[in-house]
Structure formats: structure tokens, C-alpha cells
Design brief:
GO molecular function: DNA binding
Order of helices and strands: EHEHEHEHEHHHHHHH
Shape: elongated
Number of strands: 5
CATH architecture of the largest domain: 3-Layer(aba) Sandwich
Keywords: DNA-binding
Strand order of the largest sheet: 2-1-3-4-5
Pfam family, one: GerE
InterPro entries: CheY-like_superfamily, Sig_transdc_resp-reg_C-effctor, Sig_transdc_resp-reg_receiver, Tscrpt_reg_LuxR_C, WalR-like
Protein name: DNA-binding response regulator
Strand content: 5-15%
Number of domains: 2
Largest sheet: 5 strands, parallel
Length: 216
């Protein structure tokens, strides 16, 4: 299996060493490590996987390295921190007490282009204070754009969306670009949050896959 350039950002040295040891015999062997995101910016590189426990400044590292995959290992499941991480475009959000097997599986899914988030992601985000009226919010979106929004809630990749809707990936990209502009968001993760806050759920017949959820 092709090795994946892996960067670790973790303030706790003991946890950092333990994680390095865990990943040593996998494709995710840690190539570089930092205590903070501030230290990491400038030393991450343009591709690979970043595993970090820092909840703050995620947007900074995402902006500096748009092509990398980012997985957050959090101490606690806090709604605001999860929302901020998703807005920053992270690819996974896991708890530090996740089992080693589940962690490796999650990292593999991320490198395949999937999103890995907590099992109760949708309910957590739908419980936020501001929930616009679905009928009003989706006005102006075509049926196809609504289908794609639904698929985003389910964590589907462009390839999966294209297969399910019987269209090409290029067409999906065109629809997605227009959709992001219409609902005034910057990326597909923000679009998924918008969709969940506007009445879309992962149970629709259009979607067959949910955000991958991994428990300990």
C-alpha cells in the first residue's frame, strides 16, 4: 500500500509518542510532528494527511494547504468546536478514545475521499439555535440541486452522486458550483451543514450513504 505522508500536531508529548507508535507500522507513519498549528504552518507541505488535536486555527492550515486531508482528534464532543471544524473543511472529526482499529479505518476512509464524523452529527447540528424555514430556504434551487444537497448531507463523493443521479462527474461539479453560489457557502461541507439546518436529512431515498461514523 502506498505510504501517506502524515503530519501530527499535538501538544501532549505522551499522546503524540503513543500515536506515532500506533501508526508506525501502517501507511500513516508520522513523518513530521508539531506542538501547535502555528508551528506547523510552513512545514506541512502541499499534500498528505494532517492529524491534529487543535480545534482553533484550523481555517489557517486549511487555507495554507487546501489539498491536504485534515483529521481532528478531540478530547470532547463540543457542538461549537465540531461546527467550526466542519466550516474549516476538515475531513474527519474523531474522539481521542476511539479504538486503534477504528482510527486506522477512519484514516483509510478519509484518504479515499470520504468524510468521517460522529454518529450524531446531524442531530447535533440541527439543534443549533438558528434553523431557517426549509420551504423558504430551498426556494430558487432546482430539483437537481436539491438532490445534490441531499447527497452532500449523506457524505457522498462526486463519483457516488454522479452514479446515483445518472449524470457525469463533470455535471455534478457544475451543479455544485452553482449550488454553492446560490446558498452563499464556500465548500461542500458548509453546504451539508446548510442543508441539515434547512430540513434535509440523510434518510432521503436519493441518498444511500451517510457521513461515515466511527465509534470506539
Amino acid at each position: 500500500m502506498t505510504p501517506t505522508r502524515t503530519i501530527l500536531i499535538e501538544t501532549n508529548r505522551l499522546f503524540r509518542e503513543g500515536l506515532k507508535h500506533l501508526l508506525a507500522d501502517t501507511r500513516f507513519a508520522v513523518e513530521a510532528e508539531f506542538s501547535t498549528i502555528e508551528q506547523a504552518v510552513g512545514g506541512v507541505g502541499s499534500s498528505g494527511l494532517v492529524i491534529t488535536s487543535e480545534a482553533g486555527n484550523l481555517q489557517r492550515i486549511r487555507s495554507a494547504y487546501p489539498e491536504i486531508c485534515i483529521v481532528v482528534l478531540a478530547n470532547d464532543l463540543v457542538v461549537d468546536a465540531l461546527r467550526d471544524a466542519m466550516t474549516a473543511g476538515v475531513d474527519g472529526y474523531l474522539m481521542k478514545d476511539v479504538s486503534p482499529e477504528a482510527l486506522i479505518q477512519s484514516l483509510e476512509l478519509v484518504m479515499m475521499g470520504e468524510k468521517v464524523f460522529p454518529t450524531n452529527l446531524a442531530s447535533m447540528l440541527l439543534n443549533l439555535d438558528t434553523t431557517p424555514s426549509p420551504m423558504k430556504s430551498v426556494r430558487g434551487l432546482s430539483p437537481r440541486e436539491q438532490d445534490i444537497l441531499q447527497a452532500l448531507v449523506s457524505g457522498s463523493s462526486n463519483k457516488v452522486i454522479a452514479f446515483k443521479l445518472g449524470i457525469t462527474e463533470a455535471t455534478v461539479k457544475v451543479h455544485l458550483k452553482t449550488l454553492l453560489r446560490k446558498i452563499d457557502v464556500n465548500n461542500r461541507t458548509q453546504a451539508a451543514i446548510w442543508a441539515m439546518n434547512n430540513g434535509f436529512t440523510a434518510e432521503s431515498a436519493v441518498s444511500t450513504r451517510s457521513f461515515h461514523a466511527v465509534s470506539a
